[in-house]
Write a structure and sequence with these properties.
The complex is a heterodimer of chains A (329) and B (801).
Chain A: E1 11-13, H1 18-28, E2 32-35, H2 41-47, E3 54-57, E4 67-70, E5 73-77, H3 82-87, H4 89-94, H5 96-102, H6 108-113, H7 116-121, H8 127-130, H9 171-177, E6 181-186, E7 189-194, H10 195-198, E8 217-224, E9 231-237, E10 248-257, E11 260-269, E12 276-277, H11 279-285, H12 292-298, H13 314-328
Parallel strand pairs in A: 1-3, 2-3
Antiparallel strand pairs in A: 4-5, 5-8, 6-7, 6-8, 9-10, 10-11, 11-12
Chain B: H1 15-20, E1 35-41, E2 47-53, H2 55-58, E3 63-68, E4 86-87, E5 93-99, H3 102-109, E6 113-118, H4 125-129, E7 142-146, E8 149-153, H5 159-166, E9 177-181, H6 184-189, E10 193-201, E11 213-219, E12 222-226, H7 236-243, E13 250-253, H8 271-281, E14 285-288, H9 291-297, E15 304-312, E16 318-330, H10 337-348, E17 352-361, H11 375-393, H12 397-404, E18 411-412, E19 417-418, H13 424-435, H14 437-442, E20 446-447, E21 450-462, E22 469-474, E23 480-483, H15 493-505, E24 512-515, H16 534-561, E25 568-570, E26 574-577, E27 584-586, H17 587-597, H18 599-602, H19 612-621, E28 626-631, E29 641-653, E30 659-669, H20 676-695, H21 713-716, E31 729-732, H22 750-766, E32 774-775, H23 779-786
Parallel strand pairs in B: 1-14, 10-32, 12-13, 16-17, 23-24, 30-31
Antiparallel strand pairs in B: 1-5, 2-4, 2-6, 3-5, 7-8, 9-17, 10-15, 11-12, 11-14, 15-16, 18-19, 20-21, 21-29, 22-23, 22-28, 25-26, 26-27, 29-30
Classes of the chains: A alpha+beta (329), B alpha+beta (801).
């Protein structure tokens, strides 16, 4: 098991037009690898635990960058950096849930090069999988984490299906809460997928965490104005305050009127392989005022149905606590 | 005492280069024809390489050679071989392959085929200790004294003993190391408060920011070796032995090192790869390891699983301590249990004490020294335990520490030897006042889900050695050349200690030049930069060398101007008659006279008692000026202690298990302060390390396959900028140690231990006295405790999770 830290031999393509990138993605399909900010890519490739033949560097495609106001909300190019997302005045003014989430990603250095697209499509961080073990997700036939002796403190309490890895993205729960859509292009055209459907668990596709197929490129994220200027709450609990993945995170959007919550989205991160809508909580708070009394009523609704592993039972309490805190903030 | 240089801030000459990037690390050096080597490492925790096929790799364009264990002298076993076919941990180097580029070398590794015969493995010491448990080596799991000295043998405990130990009860079992002093039984009998706890601390890697690199080449029978060590001159003798050459055949170059923290005090086995491979392929060879390999080759702190019983008398005096420590020795078997126990004897001065322990081999990364090895994790555990005793006595926790603090008359460690001095009560008083302890303790504690915890904790490490050499040279240009064999490990102690020589010579700092970083420049025999010793040890060597230079200047002046040497004084630029200052010589003139006179003045002759390395060094500079050279024969009677006390205020969020360190104050008791800015940086850096021990860092090994989970920086989680307080307050007692010419002792390691201890104490305080009895304490543990899913502190969790 050699330890590597230089790049393997690999073909490099650097298109400057989306169409060229789509052609390359189509032609190379599973042999190719899309490069954005590289913060997930370089780990995989330098460790040589993924071995694509060619890399399609998207960084020269200006059309994939930037934040634009649209008639129905905002569109964010997939190559927009997390720093730009975190500091953009439009986002901060009306969709601060996303900027609050983006500013919690990793570290300033990583946010300066890491992209929102990359943050959404990054692979899971299960350490067994990342070490190159032949687990289910890697094409093997066992899970090393879901055993009595497995080191699974960071793993899933919901949605286990052979694999117990969790979504590592901080922006994904926020975008699900904002009812965002993902713009996906290929040589066949464009399809727009709701964020809630964009992420898939191991029961749907154990090798991938999104619906992206070989040949497809996530080009933009669209945020409708449904939740513009709503009451937002984002909190990420990680061991460290910088450069760490969430133990549990929560993204909440609440539309209040007449002193009560008319509608809401409660979405938890890092509790299952996809951002988890806490629909029972949303139903419980509908028509109620934010505050201590409502917070008490939701009890353990957030964690109901959880199936903790040996070392991650604390996540049940944590997700319950975070859901309550959203109502107390 | 007022000094010119001691106690004054200055800018170390290498600081700018570290900011601009101009500073050169081993990796920055190139040599014509240099090739790059990469390592093939073990994929399994335990096994034997039965055959290796490297033919395909060697046929690759650009591959120039290979080095295997057979190319190296036989390594001691068990140990930490540079290369080995016997595999005892994942990540162990098997062979090195050299190529004209790193990329080719890495690609070549993938062409190597080998068969490995797997062996049983173990990643937790108690799993190995229990009867029938696997051993990390076929012969055993501990080093024990046998008929032929220390031997690798199996040590097994009954299932009952292991069960008792896991449950927090004293085990009825055999140990490999024991010591005691005083009448333990009687001391417990007179105790009115007994606290008995089980504990566990995690081991973790150093993560020095510079992954270690070596570059070596051979010219005219000499090996030029660019290394990455904490130390400079301490490398020469062991590295020359490692390479099988004479002392004068080695040129060791190490201008800058990116941290070591105990993991590179002296030459480590990996260094031999560059030396032997460069000789074999007859080309300069650079071996630069990866961040992941630093996790393995860089070694790690040993984890502890233990049991402690403390007895306290009604007046608050600690009467008795009984402690059992099982160390996770990793594949090197190294543990720090005795040091851990020794630290208790220093900080709390029990009248009777017993230590029993065993360091158990496991198939995990090798263990070695890491900043306060044993002492720091012990203090982290000890602080809440002693807090519990104080609470049971109804005594303020600071007062409790004050009562038990060491002083000048204290006896310490297993041998109950004396200390050179100790002003710990003064440190406690200063810190409590700075921190405003009483007001902090009395403040409101609860605000919604947040609760305030106030903590206090100590740090200790022996902090000073003696018997090394110093060299000072005054050039005919009038400049003072301060030769130092102290390494540039990031503490700037190489620069701080030579200021002792500048002080003696009363010369301006601008007229001094530090000579360092390359043994061919003539560097004296020096201690290794470990164990917090350098400030004490090398203010002494610089003092004696400078005193020798002053004596020689006076002798030269007296011979030329008449009178006796005692009639002369110095002022930093001249040596002159005290009575008639106009009569004198400049330093430049005295140096020129020394060159002309030769003999002891020019370095042609030197004291017999200096080390062979210093003799070689003097020979290199003979005739270049007036040479002051001497061995430190000053009095040293006892342990020179580095002591520290820290105070912390944390705000703990019961919902999330996260806490913010709102205030941190630490006071160093390190004798006279030599370099205030260096001290504050060391105290702050140590503090951050302590926060890491208390809350973040640990090994995680999977017991199913022996794989480490967190080999990378982001997985190992050393604290970040937002995990530490915005402001950290540090100070020093600044009273002189009588056995140091300038009163100075070291402090590097206690700076960390006190911080870890203060945080652990504060967490316990925040949670109404709940003891986690483990490091680190992470948010999940706090959440579980608050939710009353009681995190079972009576059960000894493994120390690799």
């Amino acid at each position: 098991m050699p330890s590597h830290d230089v790049m393997p031999d690999i073909e490099l393509y650097q298109p400057v037009q989306v169409e060229d990138a789509l052609d390359l993605a189509s032609r190379l399909a599973e042999r190719g690898w899309l490069l954005g900010g590289g913060q997930d890519t370089y780990g995989w490739l330098k460790d040589r635990n993924k071995s694509p033949e060619a890399m399609i560097d998207l960084n020269g495609i200006e059309a994939l960058r930037g934040i634009r106001e649209t008639a129905s909300g905002l569109e964010i190019g997939a190559l927009t950096t997390l720093t730009e997302v975190a500091t953009n005045p439009l986002i901060r003014a009306s969709y601060s849930l996303l900027s609050d989430a983006a500013v919690k990603v990793a570290s300033p250095q990583i946010r300066n090069v890491g992209t929102v697209g990359g943050n959404l499509v990054q692979d899971v961080r299960c350490w067994y999988y990342r070490r190159g073990l032949s687990c289910y997700r890697a094409g093997g036939n066992l899970c090393y984490a879901d055993t009595p002796q497995g080191m699974n403190r960071e793993h899933a309490i919901f949605g286990a299906s052979r694999c117990v890895a969790v979504t590592p993205s901080d922006t994904a729960p926020a975008l699900v809460a904002l009812d965002a859509s993902m713009v996906i292009r290929s040589t066949s055209g464009e399809r727009v997928v709701p964020a809630a459907d964009f992420f898939v668990g191991p029961n749907v596709d154990i090798r991938h965490t999104t619906v992206l197929q070989p040949g497809e490129i996530l080009t933009a994220v669209r945020i409708p104005n449904t939740w513009a200027n709503a009451t937002f709450y984002f909190e990420k609990v990680a061991d460290r305050n910088v450069w760490d993945f969430a133990l549990v995170s929560i993204a909440v959007a609440m539309r209040e009127s007449g002193g009560v919550i008319q509608d809401s989205r409660f979405v938890a991160g890092a509790v299952q392989c996809t951002p988890r809508r806490l629909e029972a909580v949303e139903a419980a708070v509908r028509g109620k005022a934010r505050g201590e009394a409502t917070a008490m009523t939701i009890g353990t609704l957030a964690s109901n149905g959880a199936e903790p592993l040996t070392h991650n039972g604390y996540k049940m309490h944590l997700v319950d606590n975070l859901a309550k805190r959203a109502l107390l903030a | 005492m007022s000094y010119m240089h001691i106690g004054k801030d200055f800018t170390p000459p290498c600081a700018q280069g570290k900011i601009t990037g101009a500073a050169r690390y081993a990796e920055d050096f190139r040599r014509e024809g240099m090739v790059f080597a990469r390592l093939l490492t073990s994929p399994v925790p335990s096994g034997m390489v039965r055959d290796i096929d490297v033919s395909e790799a060697l046929r690759m364009d650009g591959v120039v050679g290979i080095l295997t264990a057979e190319d190296l002298p036989a390594a001691a076993r068990p140990g930490v071989p540079a290369l080995s076919n016997e595999l005892t941990y994942v990540g162990q180097p098997i062979l090195a392959i050299a190529a004209i580029s790193e990329q080719i070398a890495e690609n070549a590794l993938e062409r190597i085929r080998m068969n490995i015969e797997r062996r049983p493995f173990v990643v937790d010491p108690l799993d190995s200790l229990v009867e029938g448990g696997p051993n990390a080596y076929p012969e055993g799991n501990v080093m024990m004294r046998g008929e032929n000295g220390m031997e690798l043998r199996p040590l097994k405990w009954t299932r009952q003993a292991v069960e008792d130990f896991r449950a927090g009860r004293e085990p009825d079992a055999q140990f490999t190391t024991e010591w005691s002093y005083g009448d333990l039984e009687a001391a417990f009998a007179e105790s009115t408060v007994i606290v008995e706890e089980a504990f566990v601390t995690a081991g973790y890697p150093h993560h020095s920011l510079e992954p270690r690199t070596c570059m070596a080449y051979w010219e005219n029978g000499r090996c030029y070796f660019h290394g990455s060590l904490q130390s400079q001159s301490a490398a020469n003798a062991p590295l020359s032995r490692m390479l099988g050459i004479e002392l004068d055949q080695l040129v060791f170059i190490n201008e800058t090192t990116g941290g070591g923290f105990g993991s590179r005090i002296g030459p480590y086995p990996f260094m031999s790869i560059a030396g032997y491979l460069s000789r074999k392929v007859n080309r300069p060879v650079q071996v630069r390891i990866t961040r992941e390999e630093e996790f393995f080759i860089g070694s790690a702190r040993s984890g502890m699983q233990g049991w402690i019983k403390v007895g306290v008398k009604p007046d608050g005096k600690v009467a008795a301590v009984d402690v059992v420590i099982v160390n996770d020795g990793g594949s090197s078997g190294s543990g720090s249990g005795s040091s851990s126990a020794g630290a208790i004897s220093v900080s709390y001065q029990p009248t009777a004490m017993r230590f029993r322990g065993a360091s158990v081999f496991t198939n995990t990364t090798p263990r070695g020294a890491q900043r306060g090895p044993g002492q720091n994790e012990m203090h982290a555990i000890l602080a809440p335990v002693m807090d519990k005793a104080a609470r049971q006595l109804g005594m303020d926790r600071v007062e409790f520490r004050r009562i038990n603090a060491p002083d000048h008359n204290s006896l310490v460690e297993a041998n109950q030897g004396p200390v050179t001095s100790a002003y710990m009560r003064e440190a406690i008083d200063m810190g409590a006042q700075m921190f405003d302890w009483q007001a902090k303790v009395n403040q409101p504690r609860r605000n919604g889900s947040k609760v305030i915890g106030i903590g206090v904790g100590e740090g200790y490490h022996a902090a000073g050695n003696n018997g090394f050499d110093g060299i000072v040279r005054i050039g005919p240009d009038g400049k003072v050349y301060l030769h130092t064999g102290v390494g540039n490990l990031g503490t700037y102690s190489y620069a701080a200690t030579v200021r002792a020589a500048a002080e003696v010579l009363q010369c301006s700092w601008e007229n001094c030049e530090i000579v360092r970083g390359n043994s061919d420049l003539g560097l004296p025999h020096s201690s290794g930069q470990g164990g917090s010793n350098t400030i004490f040890t090398h203010t002494r060597t610089n003092y004696v060398a400078a005193m020798d230079a002053v004596a020689k200047m006076k002798e030269i002046a007296a011979a030329e101007l008449g009178g006796s040497p005692d009639d002369f004084s110095i002022d930093g630029t001249r040596v002159f008659k005290t009575a008639t200052p106009a009569q004198g010589l400049t330093y430049a003139e005295a140096a020129q006279r020394a060159i002309t006179l030769g003999g002891k003045f020019s370095g042609a002759e030197y004291p017999e008692d200096i080390n062979d390395l210093t003799k070689l060094a003097v020979q290199k500079i003979t005739g270049t000026g007036l040479v002051g050279v001497a061995k430190d024969n000053l009095e040293k009677n006892g342990t020179a202690p580095g002591l520290a006390i820290a105070f912390a205020e944390v705000e703990l969020d019961l919902d999330t298990g996260k806490y913010e360190i709102r205030d941190y104050t630490a006071v160093a008791e390190c004798g006279t302060v030599v370099h205030p800015k260096g001290l504050s940086h060391g105290m702050n850096g140590g503090g951050v390390w302590g926060f890491g021990m208390a809350g973040f860092e640990r090994h995680v090994y999977d017991p199913q396959n022996g794989l480490p989970a967190n080999v990378g920086l982001y997985q190992s989680k050393p604290p970040t900028f937002l995990d530490v307080p915005r402001a950290m307050h540090t100070a020093a007692v600044n009273l002189p140690d009588p056995q140091s010419p300038f009163g100075a002792r070291g402090i590097g390691e206690p700076a960390m231990g006190c911080a870890a201890a203060a945080i652990m104490s504060a967490l316990t305080d925040a949670l109404d006295g709940h003891l986690f009895n483990r490091t680190p304490v992470t948010p999940d543990m706090i959440i579980e405790h608050v939710a009353q899913n009681t995190y079972n502190n009576k059960s000894l969790k493994i120390n690799t999770f």
